[in-house]
Amino acid sequence: MNSSGLDVVNVVKRFGDHAAVDGASLSVKDGEIVALLGPSGCGKTTTLRLIAGFEALDAGTIAIGGADIAKLPPYRRDIGLVFQDYALFPHLTVADNINYGMKQRGISKIKRDSRRRELMRLTRLEGFDERRPLALSGGQQQRVALARALAISPKLLLLDEPLSNLDAKLRETLRIELREILRGVGTTTLVVTHDQTEAIGLADRIALMNRGRIVQIGTAREIYEEPATRFVAEFIGRSIWFPGHLKQGTHGAEFLTDDGFALRINAPANARAVNGLSIRPEHVRLSARPNDVSRIPATVMSVEFFGAELIVACRLNSGGRVIRIPIRTDDEAIPVAGASVELGISPDRCKVVADD
Ligand code: ATP
């Protein structure tokens, strides 16, 4: 049993008739960083508030290190929290902000000073002891909030959109910094974000949430390569979606798209729930190779320049749909508008899933 892993099982929270969290389950292993990612209003913050104890559960269980915490008040849950706006005490110095939780817990001055110094070193805040939060940059305030949350040596750290108050450039630098700090302390962490780049950059695994439920949990790569549903395929990265149905062809499993062409696939595990096929645009080859079993005749409509890549818009001859395929700008064979092409797709790149 891991000592500070988080287990959220079938959690439900209703506000009136609306289930903001509707049977969500996820686990974070001891020392792991998991990002809770999803669109606005899907229930991320409510899930975080349930774990922190600011909302009461309607159903389900929440445990840390195997012990049920759902009935405990927030201050007894052993959880460190970093809010979106950092919520620092403006009238207290940086040192006093970091000391605050330790003082409340009756930790001795010697231990407080030593822990604070260690955290200030780790968060690169040395020399800022006497500053007040308003005299710090956004990134520095965020690090104070982090040091304050970690000061009580919590079993679990919860971060709510920790980078969203910062400008885009700073966000990228701080994402890397934050990850290093979290790695350094090794605290089990759940971070809420609506930004996939942030989730991919920060977390060991991503729990993807939609309409109050966790729809998939895995590493960024697992989710990208094996999306469980259309929602997942379209939320993480780019995806081309073909509605249609499965069919047993003469050479094996096939997917017949509604626009009338058959794509060879590797047989899916849950064949009954499937009603569409997702392909990552970069997995469609503009000129089919001899071993591409699925070929789609198309016509190039336009080629747009985007720095390192070009986007080639192709109209499929059957059905007339336009799909956009990225190629490298330094690619040897750049097509021209009006050219006829044969798009090549390998069966292992075709992911047949449910449209949810
Ligand atoms: P965002 O990324 O925009 O912060 P979120 O995924 O964190 O969204 P929540 O804040 O958890 O979403 O909200 C989930 C749903 O529950 C929303 O429809 C929201 O309007 C509703 N909701 C949240 N808190 C309350 C509340 N106290 N009373 C009523 N409805 C609420």
What labels describe this entry?
356 residues; alpha+beta; Rossmann fold; OB fold (Dihydrolipoamide Acetyltransferase, E2P); six-stranded mixed sheet; five-stranded antiparallel sheet; 8 helices; binds adenosine-5'-triphosphate
Fold blueprint:
Blueprint: E1 6-15, E2 18-28, E3 33-37, H1 44-52, E4 59-64, E5 67-68, E6 79-82, H2 94-104, H3 109-122, H4 138-151, E7 156-160, H5 168-185, E8 188-193, H6 196-202, E9 205-210, E10 213-218, H7 220-225, H8 230-235, E11 240-249, E12 252-257, E13 262-264, E14 276-279, E15 294-306, E16 309-316, E17 322-328, E18 340-345, E19 351-353
The structure holds adenosine-5'-triphosphate.
Strands across the major sheet, in which order?
Answer: 6-7-8-3-9-10
CATH superfamily of the largest domain: P-loop containing nucleotide triphosphate hydrolases
What does the average pLDDT come to?
90
Largest sheet: 6 strands, mixed
Classification by helices and strands: alpha+beta
Q: How many runs of DSSP E, i.e. beta strands?
A: 19
Would you identify the CATH architecture of the largest domain? 3-Layer(aba) Sandwich
Number of domains: 2
**Tally of helical runs:** 8
* The CATH class of the largest domain: Alpha Beta
Order of helices and strands: EEEHEEEHHHEHEHEEHHEEEEEEEEE
Helix content: 10-25%
> What portion of residues belong to β-strands?
25-35%
Which stretches are low in confidence, meaning pLDDT under 50 for 5 or more residues running? none
